Amino acid sequence: MLALALASTTEPLAAPGLFSIGPLTVTNAMLFAVITALFTIGILLVAARYSQLHPKSRLAYLFELLVDFIWGVAISTFGDRKTALKHLPFLGTLFIFILIGNLTGSGLLPGVGTITAHTASGSEPLLRPFTTDLNATLAMAILTIGSVQFYAVRQLGLKGHIKHYFASPLWNPMNLFIGLNEVFGELLRIVTLSMRLFGVIYAGEVLIAAVTSLAGNLGWLAAVPTVLMEIFFSFIQAYVFMMLTATYLSVALGGEHETREAELVS
Amino acid sequence: MQHADPQLVKGLAIGLGAIGPAIGVGLIGSAAVGAIGRNPEMQGRILSTAFVMAGLVDAVLAFVLLIVFTTK
User: Fold this and answer.
1) B10, part of any domain
2) Which residues fall within 8 angstroms of residue A211, CB to CB, at 6 or more apart?
3) Which of A88, A176, A266, B15 has the most CB atoms in a 10 Å sphere around its CB?
């Protein structure tokens, strides 16, 4: 019988703490999230510096391609140039940050998860990709849904936003039930958004470890297709997160987008 | 159930948990192929939408993998 005992060889579900600043325990996922964010900001600043009408720099061209792709998603979801332009920075931030975080988790970077630090509770990996920590994805999902609610309240007013959930005669028990269902669904979006991203990326990392340990001496060769699949899933999950955010935003900001999209298609 | 073999439970979990996503991905693939057959000039948009839907469905299998790999 094959005894893998993978639960002990791969990293635990909860990110272990490295050190603490006052009451805040800094985990390795938090440390790497800060490093990833600084790297992302830096590379975007460099790309923005070299961006021009006919970009000669390959980096600027690549990032313009990426922003153009996000712009396409935004304009096809909102159907309105002004609204899309207003929410483009948020969507772009989500996509690029999640994409880079996922790519660091797909076994591409040497040192991530293998460099260990000696802490009070033993030796722990120093760097851990932040999307393989449920706290990180949950925080992103709460921020996303929270800002969707914020924009909806600012656009429609508090009364108009509540009317979005509850139909007009509230004494009708059916309307009340449907409204409560909608509010519960809004809370459930936080759970599904965070669990989808976390589950896929963490399971992918564990899958790479499992395939490597199954293959024995040729583990590095056997892991190559899995790593390629993980790169593909990194893109898909970042795109899904951004697209779902755009869809939630456009639904919460008002119902006229459907007719506009129908006009665009026809 | 306290005498159940954990390896058997793991095998059953991955086997039963793969049924749903497999059916889902199959349905997405058949729908995408049918749609491309109907209007081949929309192939790019249909394929990208199909990949996104496959990503949504694969999350279920990822949860199963997560449970299988992280329990002893």
Assistant:
1) no
2) A219, A222, A223, A226
3) A88
Q: Give SS3 for B44.
A: helix
Domain ranges of chain A: 27-265
C-alpha A155/C-alpha A171 separation (Å) is 27
Look at residue A266 and tell me whether its pLDDT is greater than 50.
no
Specify the number of domains making up chain B.
1
C-alpha–C-alpha distance, residues B48 and A127, integer Å = 33
Q: Does A7 sit within 8 Å of B66, measured CB to CB?
A: no
- What is the phi/psi pair of residue A124, to 5°? -125, 155
Positions of chain B with pLDDT under 50: none
* Kind and range of the H or E run holding A123: strand A122-125
In-domain check, residue B8: no
User: Does residue B5 sit within a domain?
Assistant: no
**Nearest-CA distance A171 → chain B (Å):** 37
Would residue B31 count as lying in a domain? yes
Residue labelled with tokens 């660091």: A104
Contact (CB<8Å) B66/A206: yes
Cβ partners under 8 Å of residue A127, min gap 6: A28, A31, A32, A35, A111, A112, A113, A115
* Closest CB to B58 among A13, A200, A210: A200
Domain enclosing residue B53, as ranges: 24-66
Say yes or no: ipTM exceeds 0.85: no
A77-113, pLDDT tens digit by residue? 888 888 889 999 999 999 999 999 898 877 777 777 7
- Which pTM value belongs to this model? 0.82
Note whether A203 contacts B56, CB cutoff 8 Å: no
Token pair in block for residue A42: 């830096």
Locate the chain A residue with the closest alpha carbon to B58.
Answer: A200
